[in-house]
Amino acid sequence: MANSPQAKKRARQAENNRLRNTSQRSKLRTFVKKVLVAIKAGDKTEAITAFRTAESLLDSSVNKGIIHKNKAARGKSRLNAKVRLMPGLPLTQSPKKA
After folding, report:
1. Closest by Cα among 30, 77, 36, 17 to 57
2. In a domain, 40, yes or no
3. Phi/psi of residue 96, nearest 5 degrees
4. Do 50 and 21 contact (CB within 8 A), yes or no?
5. C-alpha dihedral (48, 49, 53, 59), degrees to nearest 10
6. Would you say residue 39 lies in a domain?
7. Which CATH number characterizes residue 31's domain?
8. pLDDT tens digits for 22-72?
């Protein structure tokens, strides 16, 4: 256990950061799952909008240090490939960002 005041403070901060990071990681996974659910349902428009949200969250998670940049790039690439393989609207005719 930490003995010095500095070490005690760092232990408190580490616990708060761990809880915050866990919450952010869970939110990220939820939005990635929303893309996968839309793909499975066959709704390309919904999949595209969910992908854009997930893509943004992946990028911000990298900036916050929650995931590694290569993991985010790999995740975006895989999701994008799945969305592109869906029948229906081509990506060029997708609805514009709000």
Report:
1. 30
2. yes
3. -75, 160
4. no
5. 30
6. yes
7. 1.20.58.110
8. 999 999 999 999 999 999 999 999 999 999 999 999 999 999 999 999 999
